[in-house]
Amino acid sequence: MTSEQVADRTSVRDGEGSGKEASEGYQRGLGNRQIQMIAIGGAIGTGLFLGAGKAISKAGPSLILAYAIAGLVIFFIMRALGELLMYRPVAGSFSDYAREFLGPFWGYVTGWTYWLFWVVTGITEVTAAATYVQYWNKSIPQWASALVFTVILYLVNLISVKLFGELEFWFSMVKVTAIIGMILIGIGVITLGFSKAGDTASFDLLWSHGGFFPKGIGGTLMTLQIVMFAFLAVELVGVTAGEAADPKKTLPKAINTVPWRIAVFYVGALIIILSVVPWTEFMPGVSPFVAAFAKIGLPAGAGIVNFVVLTAALSSCNSGMYSTGRMLRDLALNGQGPKFFGQLSKKGLPLRGTTASAALMLVGVWINYQWPGQAFNYVVSFATISGMWAWIMILVCQLRYRRKADRGELPQSELKAPGAPWTSLFALGFIFMVIVLMGIDKDARISLYCAPGWAAIMWVSYLVLKKRNPQAFERKDYSLAAEEVSEAV
Question: Which residue numbers delimit the Amino acid permease/ SLC12A domain (predicted)?
């Protein structure tokens, strides 16, 4: 097969000139700037704004190193995803790649697990949002705020995908502006010495209170679960592939910005915060950004930051509702989920799947009612393990794809992951290490208790569905050779 034939074949699979959109009926309404900001905003959520407070108290300044190393792993994961997306940008993303390279069962498990991840993450984010509301008024029950936010965000997702992208653009813009503003103010406090924190603010605070590793290497390692949770959702750009106006152009740009995003928004922000406020003053459940502004003596600034982190939480939950509807529809179209979820609205939105997911997110309201103090910790641990499953699938599928492409069975990707397969293998090893550490941490161990139960549900339901609809679980051959035979016939 010539290179021209390969290009033609890839174009058909992407929906160009085939009469059938690769987006499977979705409207490609997400432009370049929206995709870029969704990618940036997806990595900035409650994990940084709320979860970092607990991590700082556990590891001290060495948390900066933990974010830097984990950020490098995330970059390896995103470049692996980029290689797959440039090979075949589809709305099903991770589950679709799992079907192709690992088999229908793995696609089934990945699709439902990623759907579950976003449902649980939605609960996490709405929990965090309810916590932030109490900054202004502690008399408002946490569960009541969670209920209101869930309903509002569901209504937002009844709008067109283009407007969804626009809202996410401005949500992300607020977060980015706030972090950059905090960094600039912090630098001013450290270098010029203004405000009441100016007398003590110094980069020396990074090692003057027990050293850079005050809790030892073990303390740093035990924060990796929290750190990895902070990066969950960076892979959301893969779900937007079916609705991106120009995926071949916009997705690589979004993926290649990962290193500087992590360097500025995580590593840079933490360096400044911990140089303004000694790590010993941070407490779990208190936003490091709010604590920093309070230390500087800007109470209004603390209120503004609290509003920003509230926006961050709602933005992430909004993204969750967006992705859950798409994942349910992908499963339905492949016969691995209820056909009910396969229909789109007149505006090209999977409202049935979004509605069902939003209803389940209301479980978060009950969690906030029953355990308002522990709700965040419970859902964070389970969201982490289910989210990391998507990363594992991305890496394994990329390794399988690279081998097939190198043998000439599949077309080469336009965005190859640098250093692969070694970078992908390193990332897999790192993820498995984090899972082991979660088993050691009593607070995170609950997610590992839940994982076998979810696996059993997946296996039993797979056997039942396969018996009822064997065709939905037949393995498809995507190779160039198979397509040549099909074209010849």
Answer: 35-470
Rounded CA gap, 487 and 489, in Å? Answer: 5
DSSP state of 410: S
Q: How many CB atoms lie within 10 A of CB 139?
A: 5
258 neighbors 72 (Cβ within 8 angstroms): no
> What CATH number should be reported for the domain whose range is 37-411+419-473?
1.20.1740.10
d(CA 192, CA 148): 43
Domain boundaries, the chain: 37-411+419-473
Do the Cβ atoms of 197 and 189 come closer than 8 Å?
yes
pLDDT in tens, the chain (489 residues): 333 333 344 443 444 433 333 446 666 667 777 777 777 666 676 667 766 888 898 899 999 999 999 999 999 999 999 999 888 877 667 888 999 999 999 999 999 998 988 888 787 778 778 877 887 888 888 788 888 888 888 887 877 777 777 878 888 888 888 888 889 988 988 988 877 777 788 899 999 888 999 999 988 998 888 888 788 778 877 777 667 777 777 788 878 887 888 888 889 999 999 999 899 888 877 778 878 887 888 777 778 777 887 888 888 788 888 888 888 888 888 888 888 888 888 877 888 998 998 888 877 667 666 665 555 555 666 677 888 899 999 999 999 999 999 998 999 988 888 888 999 999 999 999 999 988 888 767 777 877 888 889 999 999 999 888 888 787 776 665 555 544 444
Q: Helix, strand or coil for residue 372?
A: coil
Contact indicator for 237, 250 with CB cutoff of 8 Å: no
